[in-house]
Amino acid sequence: KVIMGKELEFYQKQLDARKKAGLDTLQIEEKIEGVLAMQSSSKEESEKKAEKAQRKAQELREKQFKSIEIANEKEIISINEKLINGAISEEQHKKLLEDLELSFLTKKQAIYAKDSKEWADIEIQKQNIAIKAQQEILKEKEKVLKEEEKLVDEGMKDFEASQKEQNKTEEQLINESLKNGKEVWNEKKKLDDDEKKRKIDNAKAIRDIQIQMAKDVVNAIFEGNNQKFAAELSQLEKEKEAKLKNTHLTAAQKISIENEYAKKEAAVKTKQAQNDKAKALFDIAINTAVNVVKNPTMIPWVIALGLLEAALVTARPIPKFAKGTANAPERGIFGEAGREVMFPVGGGAILADKATYFEGDKFKGAKIYSNPETERLMSMVGDRNIIVKNQNGNRLLDQMKRVESAINNKKEWIMDSDYRVIGHKTSTHQEIYLNRLINRN
């Protein structure tokens, strides 16, 4: 078709040129008619081939349908024979036929293309079968529920009848006691009071056991969490000690290991603190419930006291130090406002670039710099006369500690770019250099 189209275009251009020049165009017109006739013949032949291919495809599908239907009928006969022979129950027979029908439709559907109407129609049939099966299941469930409701109703009727009989007996006893005099009546009343007291005592005992069981279970969960956190902390400590035993470690590597495990310990201790707070709130809730039961006349005051205690627990937030501090407590969070550096009293430095939890005696009294102060220290450390470029994080922390010491204690050591001491302040020039280092004019 492409070739004939180009040939037709070529002859058409020649015809236009001859007409424009006033020449004979008969021969060119005959050639164009020949090309058009060939095109028409080619189209008819293509249509015939397509029609033949469609017939063959339809014949093939019909053969496949026949094969599937024969196999399906054989399988139906086999399932029916099993039912007749007692090999399967009515319910199993029904389920097997449903599964067979779905299998038959799936095989039939595979003959068509997924984008064909026939494929979509069969898919709808399959969905209808699934919906029907689901409806049957729901009907069975409704039937079971109705039977259960019937049993419950019968049980309630029996109970009511028994209760009526019991009430009737009690009324007879009361009448008899009235007839027999005040002494019999008082004895009956005493028995009734004892029975009521016994029931109340039993109810209280059951309630106390239930409350204690709840406390034991939940406390066991909290205690298990704490044991798990303690085990994690112990394991982290062992791992850290094992790494620090390496005699080939440099001072920077040791600081890196300390910082790494300090962050890991902080994450575990954060979970531990949350677990402790949750346990405290649970204890308050349980104690409040117990006191409400024991003191029904004081319910408003008991509940108010429980809410107050819970509020106090909830209001004990973990200290945060976005503004920095010169004397940190044993626990808290730093790094939540950006990069912040901590200098523990025992030495070393810890840099946090995100909110980091810390807890322990070694952090008590530590100095924490706010984000602006930390960035200022880091800019000082970036001076080309103090450190070299591309240094690692541990050397950066070490230099920040040195700058911090220089600011607070006015250290007068002079070091070169390789961190070697080259002398003390002995001249005005060196004093100007040190003043520039600690940001003085």
Strand content: 5-15%
| Low-pLDDT segments | 383-392
Order of strands in the sheet with the most strands? Answer: 3-2-5
Largest sheet: 3 strands, antiparallel
Distance between the termini: 90 Å
Report the structural category.
mainly alpha
Work out the radius of gyration: 47 Å
What general outline do the C-alpha atoms trace?
flat
Overall mean confidence score, pLDDT:
76
Give, in order, the helices and strands: HHHHHHHEEEEEHHEEH
Structure annotation, total helices: 10
The count of β-strands is 7
In helices, the fraction of residues equals over 70%
Description:
The chain has helices at 2-21, 26-84, 90-109, 117-180, 182-244, 251-294, 299-314, 371-381, 393-409, 428-437, and strands spanning 331-334, 340-343, 350-352, 356-359, 367-368, 413-415, 421-424. By secondary structure, the protein is mostly helical. It is built from ten helices and seven strands. Mean pLDDT is 76; it is low at 383-392.
Set out the fold topology:
Blueprint: H1 2-21, H2 26-84, H3 90-109, H4 117-180, H5 182-244, H6 251-294, H7 299-314, E1 331-334, E2 340-343, E3 350-352, E4 356-359, E5 367-368, H8 371-381, H9 393-409, E6 413-415, E7 421-424, H10 428-437
Antiparallel strand pairs: 1-4, 2-3, 2-5, 6-7
Observed structural traits:
mainly alpha, two-stranded antiparallel sheet, 73% helix, 5% strand
Quick structural gist:
With 441 residues, this protein is mainly α.
